[in-house]
Amino acid sequence: MYCRVAHFTSFHFAFDTRRIHKECKSLAMAGFEVTLVAPHAEGDAVRDGVKLVAVRPPRDRRERISSTIGSVYRAALRARADVYHFHDPELIPVGVLLKAHGKRVIYDVHEDYPQTILMSEWIRPALRRAMSAGMSMGEMAASLAFDRIIAATPTIAARFPAAKTHVIQNLPWRDELRLAERIEYAARKPVCAYVGRLANTRGLREMVQAIQLVSSRLAAKLVTAGDAKSGAEADLEMGSGTGLVEHRGLQNRSEVAALLAGARIGLAVVHPLECFIQSQPTKLYEYMSAGLPVVVSDFPIWREIVASANCGLLVNPLDPEAIAEAIVWLLSHPAEAEQMGRNGRRAVVENYNWEQESARLTSIYSELLADQATGAQALRKQAAGSAEGR
């Protein structure tokens, strides 16, 4: 069924993995005409069959609110899409405006934003609880107007009306991060990899301290890829100064695949904050897809995944010594570690993959379009009946 789709974001990187490499690409592969409106300094582009319409990136949060949101709204309207799909809570008013124009609108909820506000350092502590409650009420009220809600986790989905809410987890493509020509596991250097945003709440300090502890017993190195949140640079510099940490900055998907193909272990030791404890661990799934054994935070959801697949070790993420012990064990038992990597890879192929989520996504769109067609047919019948009555 032909359909013009416009995804739009005012906050995220234009080539963010979930938006363009998963959702937009999947819809384009299914035959939809897909436009993504997003901040991008290098102008319009086409990627994987998706047309990127660029707006000027904001210089700061204030400019994003005062200017970028309006630019995104105008660009989205010009796309003349049949379905609009947005990704940021700050765009809820834009979604409501689009509904007022008679458009079909999907709100894609990536995080538990009320919980995220409670830990946001840029918000004064005295205001966080009130802002969190306001966000919760605003999301719920606006969601009643939207046609569908897509949630990244079951926990997030539980906050919205069940009849219109669907879970689309942020799982990896089966083979995107698995190189055809891989280094044999036993021949790899003792590299521990971390891919994602670098911040102290995401375990950066503990990873640096752990690799220092490991290095007193075994050769080991931490290699990180991603953007560094303000305040994290000091920990990166501390590790880099010892030669035990290498930071590669933002990497494209091919570069991430190459990093994981040469690593021995994947790390994800985020802190026990509510927004992380209830999250679906994207990094864990990506490491598993690449065939890496993992060392991850011991949270209930994560524990279930790791234990059922037997693909790694669980640790207290606030304890650098525990993280170091897990790394030492995996480096000292390469055969067992390699088997854990194989187990994780098998679990992704069979259960935790984007191919399955992609089918759910296109089904949601087909259902939405079918509802529209049924409604239009009912209106035509009603109009015909009225004409006959006259």
Largest sheet: 8 strands, mixed
Estimated radius of gyration? 23 Å
What is the strand tally?
14
Secondary-structure element string: EHEEEHEHEHHEHEEHEHEHEHHEHEHHH
Beta percentage is 15-25%
Summarize the entry for a quick read.
With 390 residues, the chain is an alpha/beta fold. It has 15 helices and 14 strands. The model has no long low-confidence stretch (mean pLDDT 90).
Structural notes for this entry:
- There is one protein chain.
- This protein is an alpha/beta fold and 390 residues long.
- It has 2 domains: 4-171 and 354-386, Glycogen Phosphorylase B (Rossmann fold), CATH 3.40.50; 185-350, Rossmann fold.
- It contains 15 helices and 14 strands.
- An 8-stranded mixed β-sheet has the order 3-4-2-1-5-6-7-8, sandwiched between helices. Strands 11-10-9-12-13-14 form a 6-stranded parallel β-sheet, with helices on both faces.
- Helix 1 (17-29) links the parallel strand 1 (4-8) and strand 2 (33-39).
- The longest helix is centred in the C-terminal third of the chain and has 36 residues, at 354-389.
- The chain is globular and about 65 Å long.
- It starts with a strand and ends with a helix.
- The mean pLDDT is 90.
